[in-house]
Amino acid sequence: MDALGTKSRPGVVIWASKEEASELHAALKALKWLEPLSTSQKKNRDMVGFVCQHTSPLDEDQIQRLESCFPHPFEHGITTVEPAGLSVNPHQKLRHAVSQWLAFQPFQYDGDLLERLPSKWERLGDLVVLSSEAFTDPKWCAMLERVPPEQTVGLWSQVASALGGLRLARQDHIANNDMRTPQLELLHGTSTWVEFTDYGVHFGFDAKKVMFSSGNITERHRIGGLSMKGETVVDAYAGAGYYTLPMLVRSGAEHVHACEMNPASIEGLTWAAMANGVEHKLTVHAGNNQTTLQDLKGIADRCHLGLLPSSEAVWVHAIRCLKPSGGWLHIHMNINKKEIDALSMETQELLQRYAREEGRDWRVTVEHIERVKSFSPGVMHVVFDVMCSGA
User: Fold this and answer.
1) Gap between the Cα atoms of 182 and 174, Å rounded
2) pTM, entire model
3) What does the pLDDT look like over 318-342, one tens digit per residue?
4) Which of 31, 45, 300, 384 is the most exposed place for a label (fewest CB within 10 A)?
């Protein structure tokens, strides 16, 4: 038994001469028959074999398919397949784990299932979160309907282990509500509360109630790398502390006023603030930020606006939050890649107009454009670092 809990099993090995072994390997790979992570098998001094995913002898149709790809003599037979050593490639580890699980099912299955494994996931501590499409296409649904519940549990356990976790969940689309509540189905495990450390910052929250994007890791690190020593910061969309905590722990902000309306996010934020020992530097303002930001006028050296696709609804409030001398705005947006520069200028001009309407005689400039990641085809998540300074 290996680290994935799998055992030795019967399997087909196909042999050919050493001179033609590489051609055989290519043919088996093209047919998608190769056992993931398997090593070559020597039959004798002159022949080399490769382990296939089949668990029963090749039938006539399979032999003809192989002959059409590999026009040389070959032999095939059943042997004992030992668990392969684990790869550092998580995609290969996942394929290996699932193929081993499939091999022990007492009925024939479509080999195409291994080509329909998820290619994307994220890890939140020891919880692996699959995308909403994972294991839900018609072929996988038909397969899982035939499997007793106790064996399905074994599949989810092996998938979690292969991807470096202890628990497994499947993500659904974000709910269309003000708090953007995640829709999460727990497949393996008993709890959706997660705790982990990233860049020296402790996070904790209920993944079923709080949205957390691991894809924004570079931007969290960048914000945490900015010096905010002695500054008062307003985070208009604090969530569970994605940016609030790095600003407190890494950037050295003197105090952060965190606006958040989701009680579950506030629970995570306050837990993490205590875990990081920065609770005395944090004030949470619960409720709609259209209201709470009005209580923070003129106090901030910096205002963080981390809402996608746009936080424009509170730009005037953010300008009011800055001290009369000005400060920084960090504005997140989803923008067509071809329009980033043009929208940067439009944003700068609009903020300049808002500032003047508020009686702020500032010079407003977009000092930096951070291209965080592709959000969808043709659309990019960007951050405008905007400086508002005395004219």
Assistant:
1) 5
2) 0.74
3) 999 999 999 999 999 999 999 999 9
4) 45
